[in-house]
Known about the structure:
This protein is α/β, with parallel strands linked by helices. It has helices at residues 5-16, 89-92, 94-102, 160-173, 193-202, 212-220, 245-268; strands at 23-27, 39-45, 63-69, 72-78, 106-115, 124-134, 177-185, 206-208, 224-234. It has a five-stranded mixed barrel with strand order 5-8-7-6-9. Helix 1 (5-16) packs across helix 3 (94-102) and helix 3 runs parallel beside helix 6 (212-220). The two termini are 30 Å apart.
Amino acid sequence: xxxxxxxxxxxxxxxxxxxxxxxxxxxxxxxxxxxxxxxxxxxxxxxxxxxxxxxxxxxxxxxxxxxxxxxxxxxxxxxxxxxxxxxxxxxxxxxxxxxxxxxxxxxxxxxxxxxxxxxxxxxxxxxxxxxxxxxxxxxxxxxxxxxxxxxxxxxxxxxxxxxxxxxxxxxxxxxxxxxxxxxxxxxxxxxxxxxxxxxxxxxxxxxxxxxxxxxxxxxxxxxxxxxxxxxxxxxxxxxxxxxxxxxxxxxxxxxxxxxxxxxxxxxxxxxxx
Length: 273
């Protein structure tokens, strides 16, 4: 899929004109409302972008939105390509490769996740400090893509300075922001209670089915990454409640404004690199 990157980039650049985004935001399940904050926006449906796929999951609208947020040119990715939809990691990470080619230097990812830490409640925002890639796939497998490192250092995959900035903004806004490790699994089935106990033993605080492929590619391209999980439900075995995607969507919608305020605050205080 990396072979289609030039066509992908060319198609998007034709629609951008003279705009050059330096910040990209990936909007997780039910979190697409942030795209509505962008002014003077250009909307590009995925169907019009070579190599992009129309999402099949509720809560992922399937468009790129390029506009202005807090005085900066931002590209918002509303809808992911998930591994559980049958895509390989190379496909899931194609938007990150596109953003790197467009000149993005700050990459902000959001997702909906299940809470493994017992103190997490639905609606908790968790700043991702690190991740566990348990998907069995890596988007860097195969030939090296131009502009990417073969063996990128992942010891600070989520930029410490950006994390510190997010904590400062959250404190100023009166938003509670937890910190923890995100585990990515293949999906689409939710985890069993035994799997959640395993993940807790491995050091995970939240679990989901996305984010990691994009972050790996972003690090290989030298982009600074910031990740925020919305804990939409307690993971299996943490409570007696049955898990459902409807609950994920409902909680994400309730948290959307808080998360949007936080991201907009971070973007407003970014320093030009």
